[in-house]
Specification:
The complex is a heterodimer of chains A (about 110) and B (about 190). Chain A is of the alpha+beta class. Chain A is built from 3 helices and 3 strands, in the order H-H-E-E-H-E. Chain A has a single domain, classed as K homology (KH) domain (GMP Synthetase, Chain A, domain 3, 2-Layer Sandwich), CATH 3.30.300. With about 190 residues, chain B is an alpha+beta fold. Chain B has 6 helices and 5 strands; from the N terminus they run H-H-H-H-E-E-H-E-E-H-E. The two termini of chain B are about 55 Å apart. The model of chain B has no long low-confidence stretch (mean pLDDT about 90). The chains are: A alpha+beta (about 110), B alpha+beta (about 190).
Chain lengths: ~110, ~190
């Protein structure tokens, strides 16, 4: 490719993400971090003095670690995931556990 | 190219300052009409006895009518407003919001809005921000850039200022860019 010799000419383009897309990405990151399905997780985004504030509502998984530990893990996972995927600095993650989800009883196939 | 430079200077001055000829023409015309009317009436009064009597009566009536303080104050304020307007028109430079410069082979005039938009485009490209998140106002010497950041993405103030200054320097205008970054961002 000619990328090498033209690198200086190429202006930095602009990558924009619609608010909706960012919300979907955040939902994906949150459900992965919480090991739940996307249907269980509700995410809303807001501005926090130039930073990104994430509010997550999801059920707590019973019989996993303690609730605070789950919250901390989830917070760290979301901050890292958004930084990696979307390049946004998350300034705050508010987590609201709205219910309890029991681990699925495995059905015998 | 000495001759050209003189022409450029005059043209640029005319393009960057608003014309006063409209006000001057109106005022001179009004003054001329008033003076001509006065002269005409004086000549008429010199020849016509009856008219002179009547005119003196009118003038007497006018003076007694003017004696009321309200009327005097009203007329005074009216005259003052007209005088201030004329003075301001005469003394203020009447600059238009344009930038101009001359080089060897051309003279350039650009609306401030156009230059400000060019600077905003440059900032938008350089900082990877949406064009709607940047607003710029170009003054005589400085450019004000207001940036609404994207939530969670840091905006480099110096970089934005450099990009804006560079864009205007590309058209040959040296300005200092003052970048102001809004407290709150937008989700995008």
């Amino acid at each position: 490719m000619m990328a090498g010799e033209r690198a200086e000419d190429v202006r930095r383009g602009r990558t924009t993400l619609s608010a909706r897309a960012l919300q979907r990405v955040t939902t994906g990151v949150a459900k992965d971090a919480a090991r739940l399905s996307a249907d269980d997780v509700t995410v809303s985004l807001s501005d926090d003095s130039g930073g990104l504030r994430v509010v997550v509502a999801l059920p707590v998984v019973a019989a996993a670690s303690t609730i605070t530990e789950q919250g901390d893990q989830l917070r760290a996972g979301i901050i890292q995931g958004i930084a990696d995927l979307a390049g946004r600095r998350v300034s705050a993650v508010d987590i609201r556990f709205t219910g309890v989800k029991r681990p699925d009883h495995r059905r015998v196939r | 190219m000495k001759a050209n430079q003189a022409v450029y200077r005059r043209l640029l001055r005319r393009e960057t300052h608003s014309s006063r000829s409209g006000a001057a023409v109106v005022f001179a015309a009004l003054l001329a009409v008033a003076l001509l009317a006065l002269i005409g009436l004086a000549v008429w009064a010199g020849f016509d006895e009856v008219f002179r009597e009547r005119a003196l009566a009118w003038i007497d009536e006018g003076i007694t009518g003017m004696a009321a303080p309200a009327v005097l104050i009203g007329v005074g304020i009216g005259c003052l407003v007209v005088a201030v307007l004329l003075l301001l028109t005469g003394l203020l430079p009447g600059r238009r919001t344009r930038h101009a410069r001359a080089a060897d082979r051309f003279a350039l005039v650009a609306d401030d809005g156009v230059l400000a938009d060019a600077a905003a485009d440059a900032v938008s490209r350089e900082c990877a921000l949406g064009r709607a998140q940047i607003s710029t106002t170009l003054g005589r010497r400085s450019l004000a850039v207001r940036i609404t950041p994207t939530s969670g993405i840091h905006v480099d103030r110096d970089r934005a200022a450099r990009a804006a200054s560079r864009a205007l320097a590309g058209a040959g205008f040296d300005t200092t860019a003052n970048v102001e970054i809004a407290q709150g961002g937008v989700i995008a």
